[in-house]
Here is the input.
Amino acid sequence: MKGSAGTAEKMGEKGIKMDYRKVSDCLGVDQVGHLTISGADAVLLAQEYGTPLYVLSEDKVRDTCRRYKSSFVSDYDGFGTPIYASKAFCCKEILRVVTEEGLDVEVVSGGEIATALAAGVDPKKLHFQGNNKSETELILALDRGVGDIVVDNITELHRLDRLAAERGIVPKISLRIKPGIDAHTHAFIRTGQIDSKFGFALETGEAMEAAREAVASTHLELVGLHCHIGSQVFDHEPFVLAAKVMLGLFAQIRSELGKTMTHLNLGGGFGVRYKEDDAALPYESYMDDVSKAVHQTCRELGLEIPKIFIEPGRSVVAEAGVTLYTVGDIKTIPGVRTYVAIDGGMFENPRYALYQSDYTCLIANRADQPADFVATVAGKCCESGDLIQEHTPMQKPEVGDVLAVLSTGAYNYSMASNYNRNLRPACVMVKNGRPRVIIRRETYEDLLRLDV
Ligand code: LLP
Here is the structure.
């Protein structure tokens, strides 16, 4: 679908009528040719709430949560639960929605814990991850009764042991394991192999040693193991392999340390669609494959089936999100390319700058027209790499158009910054055609609040 650098901007007769529902089924096009999200007209949303604007379909988020929940019923008789990895998009309202749907919440910082508590999430349903939790963060987790602390390294195990002893409590912990599996994804978001900053390695004996210490501790209760092999993974095979490897360690810990653990968290990482031709990953078939492997491996090793957890972030919110911008300028460099300048950029979506991520772009006020123009979408930050997408098809843009970027629900708001002192956008959630603000737009006052 992409043109190549330096080609003419126009696709002419090759113009393609896009089917945006193939990227996300919460999208549509209304009678006046405008893009719709969960039944709300994107152009009206941009007019009413301003741009740049994050829009999230509540219906789509809920639907995904229900699909995950129901596969736990069919695959594990409901013994286990999906956990929403809140790093994908963490704000109070999203956490209320996913916990209403019965998901637990994964947190990786004091800030995410604070957000979850402010949203009214039961601390017992929090799973605290991270490779360098500070003492302050660990104390917050212990004092608020966080249900599962996933210990990343031996220093943390000792720190937690001391903090628990000082408080006279016995928190439930899991160990983060590197199962030694290479998920085929971008190097920055791959985490399960030995050369990773996360977790205890299996190959070196580090994992067994950590388990030995955890079992020996009278202040910590080792309930399970955790792994996360990477993000935006489409293959089932690495997940199946990870489940088998992790259960092997369950059996080894039982035989060598006499400890039977009850929780297995297989992490997140399921791929989503950014482009029309991306293959949809049916979660249900992933869940089926992993469940078969879990059942078979447990039978072979004589293990009780542990309570299974998975930790999806991206797949819960990505396809539910769209970002809306106003086109401020169009700069055509003859024989080179056309830049479409929008009022957002890497400060609210750094993913192209960081990972050259794919996105689908379109002109929301002419969504019914063929995408017969190729352009590069540029942000407003003061650097050349501030791009959202290069050489991407869209309807011919005009100044003042509303440009939409699809599948922006994950890792956009959560990775936004105030680079160049830009203000972070508002977020509107749409339920059955009705929008409501869930995060208000930043103001210059907000921006200056911390300056002394
Ligand atoms: N659990 C753990 C321990 C994780 O580290 C992650 C993601 C998840 C669950 C959720 O994975 P997901 O289902 O969202 O793939 N900023 C990058 C993604 C980094 C993912 C980090 N960890 C991006 O924009 O693509």
